[in-house]
Amino acid sequence: MEVTVADNQLIDLQKKLAVFFQKKEEPHEFCPVRDILDRIGDKWSLLAIMNLGYAGKIRFNELKSKIDGISQRMLTVTLRSLERDGLITRQIYAEVPPRVEYELTSIGRNLLQQIWELAQWASGSMNEIVKARIEYDSRFQ
Questions:
Q1: Residue 76 is part of which domain span?
Q2: How far apart are CA 103 and CA 91, in angstroms?
Q3: Amino acid 6: pLDDT
Q4: Can you spell out the DSSP letters for the chain?
Q5: Residues 57/103, Cβ–Cβ less than 8 Å
Q6: What total number of domains does the chain contain?
Q7: What is the CATH number of the domain that holds 46?
Q8: d(CA 89, CA 102)
Q9: CA separation for the pair 81, 86 (Å, rounded)
Q10: What is the pLDDT of residue 2?
Q11: What is the spatial order of strands in the sheet that 58-59 belongs to?
C-alpha cells in the first residue's frame, strides 16, 4: 500500500492530537484550549476582535456602533476580558471628556490571522457543508 502526502499529514496530526489527549497524572482544572475557545467562541468577542483588526485603534463608542446589537455593558465586559487575556490594549487619555482607545496586541493580531484562516476554510467549504446538511435533513423528513 502506497502512503500519500495527505496520509502522512493525517498521521502527523494524529500524533499531535495524541499528545494533547494523553492522560495527565494530576487532574487539572485549567485547559488552555478550552479556555481560549470559550473566549473567542462567545457571542461578542469574535466580532470585537475582527472590528479591532479592521479599524486599528478605535474608540469605545465607535466600536459599539460597528457591532450591531451589543449593549454598552456587554461591550465593556467583552473588552475587559479581551484585555485581561492580553489580546487588546486600552489607552486612556486624560482629557475632558476622557478618551479611551482600544487596539489589538501582537497576540491579538496573531489570533485574528487564525480566525481569518478559519473564515477562509468556512467560505471555501460552504457548498459542501450546505450539501451535507441537505442530504442529512432529507433522511429525517
A1: 28-139
A2: 8
A3: 60
A4: -PPPHHHHHHHHHHHHHHHHHSPPSS--S--HHHHHHHHHTSTTHHHHHHHHHHHSSEEHHHHHHHSTT--HHHHHHHHHHHHHTTSEEEEEE--SS-EEEEEE-HHHHHHHHHHHHHHHHHHHHHHHHHHHHHHHHHHT-
A5: yes
A6: 1
A7: 1.10.10.10
A8: 6
A9: 9
A10: 60
A11: 58-59, 99-104, 88-93
Specify whether the CB–CB gap between 76 and 63 falls below 8 A. no
| Residue 47 is assigned to a structural domain of this protein | yes
pLDDT along the chain (141 residues), means of 10: 62 77 62 80 92 96 96 97 96 91 97 91 95 95 82
Does the global pTM surpass 0.85? no
In-domain check, residue 94: yes
65 within domain boundaries: yes
